[in-house]
Design brief:
The chain has 189 residues and is an alpha/beta fold. The mean pLDDT is 96. The chain has a single domain, classed as Maf protein, CATH 3.90.950.
């Protein structure tokens, strides 16, 4: 396994941290506040990567040295981005919207060091079974959908009982296309 002297995960996501640990990297988690805004005319398919790049630039200014990994994940349904819900009511509405339908999960990743920057996107399609109001209510009350784009975590109860199929990377839906991150770090940095 390649060793990095100063590998930084610039994300508060416990899921991203866990995935990087599971593939064997040693790293520090360092974050700064970042306002996740993007131009209104930006193509939806480019939003996650745009935000990952902008986060990386901001973190590069704060932490001058090291290899910095930033990421952003968005859920796309009918050409609209479904962000993190503001309350339980909104989480319920979003899950009701996704019930029985296909949506896309797009993660953008940006990795940089002092010499270069590489960014990429990963797209996964997800189809939910029809979810009952009782199932949605149970999930919203017992899990933590508030910190998740699209109001759900595929690795949680709703994913276990509700996902009919996925096409693409499961770990992308968790929040980080770890296979691409691993390959990029090993071959490019």
């Amino acid at each position: 396994m390649k060793h990095f002297n100063n590998l930084i995960l610039a994300s508060k996501s416990p899921r991203r941290k866990q995935l990087l640990e599971q593939v064997g990297f040693t790293f520090d988690v360092k974050t700064i506040e970042f306002d996740e805004v993007f131009p209104e005319d930006l193509e939806i398919s480019k939003v996650a990567e745009y935000l990952a790049i902008e986060k990386n630039k901001a973190h590069r200014e704060a932490f001058k040295s090291g290899t910095i990994i930033t990421a952003d994940t968005v859920v796309i349904f009918t050409d609209k981005i479904l962000g993190k819900p503001t309350d339980e009511d909104e989480a319920h509405k979003v899950l009701k919207l996704l019930s029985g339908k296909i949506h896309q999960v797009m993660s953008g990743v940006c990795i940089s060091n002092e010499e270069k920057q590489i960014s990429f996107s990963n797209l996964t399609e997800v189809k939910f079974h029809e979810l009952t109001d009782e199932e949605i209510n149970h999930y919203v009350k017992t899990a933590s959908p508030m910190d998740k784009a699209g109001s759900y975590g595929i690795q949680e109860w709703i994913g276990l009982i509700g996902v009919e199929w996925i096409k693409g990377s499961y770990f992308n839906v968790v929040g980080l296309p770890i296979d691409q991150v691993y390959k990029t770090l090993i071959t490019e940095f």
